[in-house]
Amino acid sequence: xxxxxxxxxxxxxxxxxxxxxxxxxxxxxxxxxxxxxxxxxxxxxxxxxxxxxxxxxxxxxxxxxxxxxxxxxxxxxxxxxxxxxxxxxxxxxxxxxxxxxxxxxxxxxxxxxxxxxxxxxxxxxxxxxxxxxxxxxxxxxxxxxxxxxxxxxxxxxxxxxxxxxxxxxxxxxxxxxxxxxxxxxxxxxxxxxxxxxxxxxxxxxxxxxxxxxxxxxxxxxxxxxxxxxxxxxxxxxxxxxxxxxxxxxxxxxxxxxxxxxxxxxxxxxxxxxxxxxxxxxxxxxxxxxxxxxxxxxxxxxxxxxxxxxxxxxxxxxxxxxxxxxxxxxxxxxxxxxxx
Length: 339
Ligand code: SF4
Hints:
alpha/beta, TIM Barrel, twelve-stranded mixed beta sheet, 29% helix, binds iron/sulfur cluster
């Protein structure tokens, strides 16, 4: 049975935040001192994540599970969770391309620990990886993440390729006046390292609340900068994927851009989210949530949980309202929701 929202969009993609903790302190995400972490007892156990994921996959034919955080690799024994999720099966009767098979398993990570985990996660059943990299300059990396970890992230990217992940995607959040001078350098990095760089428009999810619209470098600006040096052409429409894509005319690969602010793509949204403390969110910018963890721990059945999930999806809005008068920032920041 499909999960369909009031606008006729079918939910296919569940983002699971496996922890709110992170070993970085990115300026567009959290303050230097970090956040007030969730008590461990308030965080979903692997068994609870597996149970909820099973309901989404086996009852509602969700065929994509993405692990996020905070930083997912700081959660101990992460391959154990991946192995559990890889046992799930999308119903054979589903219209999904994954019908009868395991769901597509992916992760978004800052890459700093990926050298240690790449092969084990691959063997456990992980299919795809996105690694965050916002600058190629060591000093600026330290300023943006408040960590001197550029080398380990670059090595994490190599480890991902060596482990057989393909394509390895790079997520680069572009902030005007901070790293927009490196758009072409990052594009070139992708060309030279055979990875797809996805440029992400800066979103109002920073814990410090400094986001302003002027700090957003738009999709059109990014395309113009790259095209001037490495000519590109737009690829066919994206479907439900968040990124628009371009290919280099000289055949040196592709790039993606996630234009949440300048070209919202909510009309095709198939995504929902589960926070590390078991709250269900129908949108990244949602201002309400549905407590699945307390329902589970109160003894709720799978039928109860499934009914609550359906009730929640029945309230999903048309899309975010950023830059509209009625826009309200979510009470959670990015690290407390998961990408
Ligand atoms: S902003 Fe919300 S509705 Fe729009 S694409 Fe993102 S998650 Fe979907």
